[in-house]
Amino acid sequence: PLLACVLSLAVASVLVWTKHWHGHLSLDSQAGIQKFHTEATPRVGGLPVLAGVLGAWALLPADVQLLLTPLLLAAMPAFGSGFIEDITKRVSVRTRLLCTIGSGMLACLLTGYSVRHTGVWGLDWLLGYTAFSVVFTALAIGTMANAVNMIDGFNGLSAGSLVIMLVGMAAIAAGVNDQALALLSLVLAGALLGFAAVNWPMGKIFLGDGGAYFAGFTTA
Length: 220
Description:
Layout lengths: L1 H16 L1 H8 E2 L12 E2 L3 H12 L4 H27 L4 H19 L11 H5 L2 H22 L5 H19 L3 H21 L8 H12 L1
Antiparallel strand pairs: 1-2
């Protein structure tokens, strides 16, 4: 977790310091009803978060790598579509939505996991059918990724919310002796904390679509 945090912080800081070089691609304008920043700000915060997670991956125990690797592979359609939007501003909402849902479906296929039980009468009967369970899970994951994107742009809100979720999941996992999931959750939280140190309180960088989709997807 510490390495993920340090790497993420370093990459985020470099991106802010060098924005005069890449700003023609990476800067977000102030235009938009949901925006309150007063100067053009890099919106490629997905790069430091991804760098932090990838850097920590090499040092993780094999059982944690086994959990993380399929998630990283499945995240690529969501991250890729969002990052291309961040630097081109030309990827449609429909395309990005389909990519985030597609990442959710790919995660189900690569891991073999999908939501099977919700405690909701009737719904759980439908979730007993694999096809329905996979579609339901993919939609839920895609919704989570897009929800995170909606709150990006308010300093600390997106990263802070995700860190709270991830630390909570780590505590629950540790409580049932699932050390692999606990460590994975803390690695993701560490990468987000490194980004958050630059994002909050001054808002020097935002997650952007790519970062929001990646962070929201992996948390989901």
